[in-house]
Design a protein that fits this description.
The chain has about 325 residues and is of the alpha/beta class. The protein has helices at about 5-55, 80-90, 105-110, 115-125, 140, 145-150, 165-170, 175-185, 195, 235-245, 305-315; strands at about 70-75, 95-100, 130, 155-160, 190, 225, 250-255, 255-260, 265-270, 275, 290-295, 300, 305.
Amino acid sequence: MALGLRTIFLLGLATLVGAAGSVLRRDHQGQVAALQSIRQATEQACAIKSAVHQSPIEDPPAVGPSNGSLVIGGGGTLDTVIWKRFLELAGGPEAPIVIVPTASSFADRYCSTDDCPAVKVLRSVGAKNVSVVHTNDRDVADSDEFVAPLKRARGVWITGGNQWRLVAAYIGTQTQRALAGVLDRGGVIGGTSAGATIQGVFASFPGRGATPYEPGFGFLRNVAIDQHLLARHRENDLVHVVRDHPDLLGIGIDEATAVIVQDDCMDVVGDSKVAIYDPTYHGDDDERPYYFLSPGDRFNLRTRTDMRDEESADGR
């Protein structure tokens, strides 16, 4: 049967529309595929950018603890302000605080909290929850029972004395790891004299009658710490240390003085001076390759610069 002209025209038109629709669908699919490829490439680029920003090369670890705080005293009689600051950083009067008197030759006597000078001082500034842990036995120091108080502590104070006793008893044991855990929880570790030096990378230096460069607890990365700096005329001792280890920063703290460290920020508190031994420092006096900070000074441990200068440059 012959088809009318109108019918033929409509069939032809339908065929053309169908073909055009097929072309449009194919074109749309191509556009969608292209958009998907662009989206995938963008996501990959963002992932790479994020990985670069998170790279430890681009963002090296802080010199000081990433969490928590350090109070590092130079020996002698520390001002009440320093003790109060330690208690505040631990969380206040109710915070659990542990004293480690092992460096002292009277450590066995100090196991009784009533006889421990550090306990008395902390109680005098308001601390209500203070205990003492001490041993010279590495097996005991590596036991769960011994470290239990340290795992609950918000603050730990390491007394003065002989830091080699601390090395012999605690380096490489659960006690050392529990001390690091105090910082990880945002607590504070303080110490004075021997309890200061042990917080750096070395517990001993040449010329001190012991094996040089025994490892310390390393709470400050790439930093060696000395104490009783001016009172005992130790100004030149750290010069040899940073010459032997040019990647290190040396910090010498005089008596009645402390530094408080949070992340890379170090504040000087007390009555005397803190010396900075930076191998890259070249002052006017070549015979004295170090310089001094005073109470109230703030120092950036990462950039090794005075933070007051940085704040002034920022307009603060």
